[in-house]
Amino acid sequence: MLAVEGLTIKRNQQVMCYSAQLKSGQLCALTGASGVGKSTLLEAITGLLPVTSGQLFWQGERFDQCVPGQRPVTMLFQQQNLIEHLDVLTNIALGVSPSAKLTVQQQQTLQQITERLAITELLACSPLSLSGGQRQRVALARCLLRQKPLLLLDEPFSALDPNLRHECLQLTHELQQQFGLTVLLVTHFPEEVASIADCYWHISEGGHIDVMSQTVNQAAK
Amino acid sequence: MSRLLKYSPGVVATGCVWLGLSWGLFNVIKYAFTDVDGLILDDPWLQQVLLFSIKQAGLSALFSVGGAVLFALAIARRVFWGRQWLMALLQVCFALPVIVVILGIVQVYGRSGWLNHLLGTEFSIYGLAGILICHVFFNLPLATRVLVSHLEAIPDSYYAQAAQMQLNGWWRWRWLEWPLIRTQVVGLSLLVFLLCFNSFTIVLALGGGPKSTTLEVAIYQALRYEFDLPQAGILALLQLALAIIIAVLATRLMPASTTTAPISVHRSQQALWLSASKLWVTIRGFGLIFCLLPLLAIVWGAWSGLSAWPWSSSLGEATLNSLLIGLCSSLLACLLSLAMLHFRQHMRYRCVDRWLEQTAVAALYLPPVVLATGWFIGTLAWHRADYWSYILIVMANALMALPFTFRLIASAFQHCYDYYGPLAQSLGLRRWAWWRWFVLPMTNKPLAQSLALAWILSLGDMGVAVLVGAADFNTLPLTIYRLLGSYQLASAMAVAVWLLVCCGLCYGLVYLTLGRKSASS
């Protein structure tokens, strides 16, 4: 279970205080108006933003003191997930090895993932030659290869056209099931994730989170 | 008529620059070929001079750029208190008068300097060591500034990814920083090599004897001591050929300059996770001390030499000469830049564009001493009346400042034309009205900056004055050089501080009168 306990962040003049819990293996959609602090929460969980107080737990273990790379978390940004002067394979491999050299085990995992995401042919390409959808799939491959139990997605497919976005969301859902991941997904279109979300966190002013369970969700369906 | 007004200033300006450059080079070549047999490449003296020129430039480039990479990483990887001040100091270092820096460095590292005093050693600064220290003092800040601006241009998203993937220390360098500054490092190395290869004043003042003589100093000696014009011509031609080869390589490899983006707060927070090493603090400390010590030494020396203040009518004359030459050459440089930029706006062809840019920056690559040699030889026929020294120095200083003024003004100028060009055309505002209401108010800040920079550069220049000036010709840097030559270190320090004060006053004057009100920031 992911537990966010009184996580407080000061940004500009705003103070945001988050508290919520999410069961393991669930896919939770984060909703709320723009600028209310959805991305801020994800960045704080990842460790990219410093927090003033509060605690983070995963399966009962506190991790808010760890540096980003050592947290049980991996994050996919809205855009710019790739380092553009390195090829696709290096971009993915850096997720698990700073020297970009993979063990046999890791190579096998990589192969499975790239086949699943249909990007095996792109491994030698430069990110600059890829389409938006391909880039996000490459970035997703890196997240999956890192095998962190928590996957944070910050409007990962919002730059794609509706059909492609729907496909990518379905794929994410399947991968979540296959790898047993716990997912936090920021979205501006709650209806688009209605079929895959187990629950919703609706964030409002000051970081207040309303948790809506899947029963509400299914009732809505 | 309107066409004539449109094109003539630009054509005249570009023509003047080309005429000046080619006239100087022509004279050099003409004299070099009167005595081609004089060029004996297996002459051991010439070989030694050539070898030393290349050796000192190579080592200077190695230490300057190598040090700059470390220093730039130490600055760019962390946000720390006084960062802005450190960057400003680096900019100041680059614009300081050469002779003043030489004095400061003699005071710190010289035989009876602070370092020897502290360590109880007898290290001599004259020769290769002193030349290297001086060259590194000027070029390390230059290279550091360029590298920091490129490191800061690395997207925030890369740092966010690096944080997630735990790319620290070496690996961050390997995957992020090195691939992105590699071309800059190569280009900068060549540029610094070229600047040091063309450096004259430093070698003249600190090169001890025949063992540490460069081609530039050999040209000067042939010209002013032996009055051997063919020999000077041949040496100048050799210098020119080598400089052009390096310049071509450098322009090929050095990509266009980028603007400095302020480091974001977001980045700083991420960087905190990435590096928290005492190593970088140490490197920053060393860099700061290296840049600051000579400056402190000058102030301290001037304070202690206050009793030896060499105030005299000749100092007044030198001050006046320096200020006037500076004013004329800075005005000339700015006028040339404006005329060339105006021309460029109306001749929107790729080739013209490139050609104008190359003309403007030519003086950065051509050795000023070679040009001045050519002019000196060329004006001999006019009995070298007094005013020729003035004219030649003003011309040379304006050409040396042109690369900087042109680039400083260019982007604001372009912005003005792109942004307001159509509006002004629709309002029917042309020529003077266009310049008065649009161009001058919008380029006012960079214009003031260029004027001030060109003035300061000219105030500090000594090489051309030494070469073409008559024996009794006097400027502030020349006064310092002569005092240094007669071991009156305290008096030299006092004049050096006076020169710095003049630089500050000129800068302040230009800034307060021209740069204060700005239409757009």
Automatic annotation (TrEMBL), chain A:
Which InterPro entries does the UniProt entry name for this protein?
Answer: AAA+_ATPase, ABC_SmlMolc_Importer, ABC_transporter-like_ATP-bd, ABC_transporter-like_CS, P-loop_NTPase
Q: Name one Pfam family in it.
A: ABC_tran
Per the record's keyword annotation, is tRNA processing included, yes or no?
A: no
A GO molecular-function term, please? ATP binding
Q: Which domain of life is it from?
A: Bacteria
In this chain the ABC transporter domain maps to 2-220
- Protein name, as recorded: ATP-binding cassette domain-containing protein
| Natural source organism | Zooshikella harenae
UniProtKB/TrEMBL annotation, chain B:
Q: What topology in the membrane does the UniProt record assign?
A: Multi-pass membrane protein
Give the UniProt family note: Belongs to the binding-protein-dependent transport system permease family.
- Chain ranges of the ABC transmembrane type-1 domain: 50-250, 319-510
Its subcellular locations are:
Cell membrane
> Which superkingdom?
Bacteria
Q: Which InterPro entries match?
A: MetI-like (IPR000515), MetI-like_sf (IPR035906)
Q: Which UniProt keywords apply?
A: Cell membrane, Membrane, Transmembrane, Transmembrane helix, Transport
Question: Which stretches are transmembrane?
Answer: 12-33, 53-76, 88-111, 123-142, 185-209, 229-250, 279-303, 323-341, 362-382, 388-410, 451-471, 491-514
Designated name of the protein: ABC transporter permease subunit
